Amino acid sequence: QVQLAESGGGLVHTGDSLTLSCAASGLSVDVYNIGWFRQAPGKEREAVVCIVNSDDTTRYKDSVKGRFTASRDSAKNTVYLQMNSLKPEDTAVYYCVADCQEISPWYWGQGTQVTVSS
């Protein structure tokens, strides 16, 4: 059974940082392309970042480039999202997903709320 368990969300101020974690079980983060989607109130879900194993690249949404960094710890089978210089428009529920290269990823975590106050 595949499980993706996110943690690390919270309420921060503009310019602050947060690190989200996604602990995976039932699949390997070294095999599946793991990434993050987010959904803001009243908006569609959107892809934020995808770690692509086939070419060892990390692909970011333009609006988070230079501020967000995704990484993985193979030993812990965990993926992280370091978010710096947070903005109010980053406010959303963040979901860990696999396979992030799919238009509709197969597996989703339960989501973690990130709220950035101005």
Secondary-structure class:
mainly beta
Order of helices and strands: EEEEEEEEEEE
Amino-to-carboxy terminus distance:
40 Å
Content of β-strand: over 45%
Radius of gyration: 13 Å
Strand elements, count: 11
The helix fraction, in percent, is: under 10%
Structure commentary:
This protein has 118 residues and is mainly beta. 0% of the residues lie in helices and 52% in strands. It has no helices and eleven strands. It has strands at residues 3-7, 10-13, 18-25, 34-39, 46-52, 57-60, 68-73, 78-83, 92-98, 107-108, 112-117. The strands form two sheets. Strands 2, 4, 5, 6, 9, 10 and 11 form a seven-stranded mixed sheet that branches. A four-stranded antiparallel sheet has the order 1-3-8-7, with no helix packed on it. Strand 9 (92-98) and strand 10 form a beta hairpin. The termini are far apart. The mean pLDDT is 96.
